[in-house]
UniProtKB/TrEMBL annotation:
It comes from Terribacillus halophilus. Pfam families: ABC-3. It is found in: Cell membrane. InterPro entries: ABC_BtuC-like, ABC_TroCD. It is a multi-pass membrane protein. It comes from the Bacteria. One of its GO terms (biological process) is transmembrane transport. The chain crosses the membrane at residues 6-26, 33-52, 58-75, 87-108, 141-160, 172-195, 201-221, 228-247, 253-272. This is Manganese/zinc/iron transport system permease protein. Keywords: Cell membrane, Membrane, Transmembrane, Transmembrane helix, Transport. GO terms for cellular component: ATP-binding cassette (ABC) transporter complex. CDD domains: TM_ABC_iron-siderophores_like. Belongs to the ABC-3 integral membrane protein family.
């Protein structure tokens, strides 16, 4: 595969994996949690590097996943203690992210763990960092994202009914005997794994964008969760492809261009969607 092909494939995998997981955050009205986890996992990545003294992807994945769980637990604990949910999210993720930045400046100045890399990533470098798999040279980030995408799809397929019921009616799920809390933390773990799989390649900004915007576009087009998942993947892929060629055209950040493309797609969807569009509301009001 060509250099350009690997970049596009990696970006599309980010769009698919984040898009699927993001749908459940949207229907649960927990989109800001995506922002919290995608920023706080920086602390997990730094701690993993300091403990293992290695930038190996598996250590990064473990460290970030653990901090993702800790972030979710801390937010939920503060909320149960009486702190408003949005305030809990703001307190936890800013604190964890700040600690991660401080640790980078103190102990990781000589490695590529820097704040700019964490926020924006550098997807253009992905094709150069490869590993041999079954005789093929495949970028490490692409291989990891492919595994995470497959894992996320399997989890969603295996627990689709439970995730759907607990997302739309947690009280009913509880009365039916479903482990609502366990399903909640399963989803948060999936968000953490998906976020960290995308983090090194595309940075926190695009991770948040892909977790929220494709699912939001899909939400405007359908009331069926299954179709929402499909549309979200398509919007994620479209954002990646349009953003990449936009970055080439204007010679700008690839991750930033992909985030911008997703925002433009949301704007167009919001204006022209058949059921919830701004245009439809205007026509109804005018008539």
């Amino acid at each position: 595969m060509t250099y350009e092909g690997w970049i596009l494939l990696t970006a599309c995998l980010v769009g698919i994996s984040c898009g699927m997981v993001g749908c459940f955050l949207i229907v649960r009205r927990m989109t800001m949690l995506a922002d919290a986890i995608s920023h706080s996992i920086l602390l997990g990545i730094v701690l993993a590097f300091l403990i293992a003294n290695s930038l190996n992807g598996i250590y990064m994945l473990i460290g970030a996943t653990v901090i993702g769980f800790v972030t979710t637990f801390a937010i939920q604990s503060l909320h149960n203690a009486g702190v408003q949910e949005d305030a809990s999210i703001g307190i936890v993720f800013t604190t964890f992210f700040a600690i991660g930045v401080i640790l980078i400046s103190l102990f990781a100045r000589d490695v590529h763990l820097d704040v700019e890399h964490a926020l924006m990533g550098e997807i253009a470098f992905i094709p150069w960092n490869t590993q041999n798999i079954l005789g093929f040279e495949i970028p490490k980030a692409t291989a990891m994202l492919l595994c995470i995408t497959i894992f996320a799809l399997l989890i969603i397929l295996l627990f689709y009914k439970e995730l759907k019921l607990t997302s739309f009616d947690a009280a009913l799920a509880l009365t039916l005997g479903l482990p609502v809390t366990l399903i909640h933390y399963l989803l948060m773990g999936l968000v953490s794994i998906t976020a960290v799989g995308s983090f090194d390649a595309v940075g926190a900004i695009l991770v948040v964008s892909m977790l929220v915007v494709p699912g939001s576009c899909a939400y405007l087009l359908t009331d069926r969760l299954s179709m929402m998942l499909l549309y979200s993947c398509l919007f994620g892929i479209s954002s990646a492809i349009i953003g990449y060629y936009g970055a080439l055209l204007f010679d700008v950040s690839i991750a930033g261009s992909m985030s911008t493309a997703s925002g433009i797609l949301f704007l167009l969807t919001w204006i022209f969607s058949p059921r919830y569009s701004l245009l439809r509301r205007f026509l109804i009001t005018a008539s």
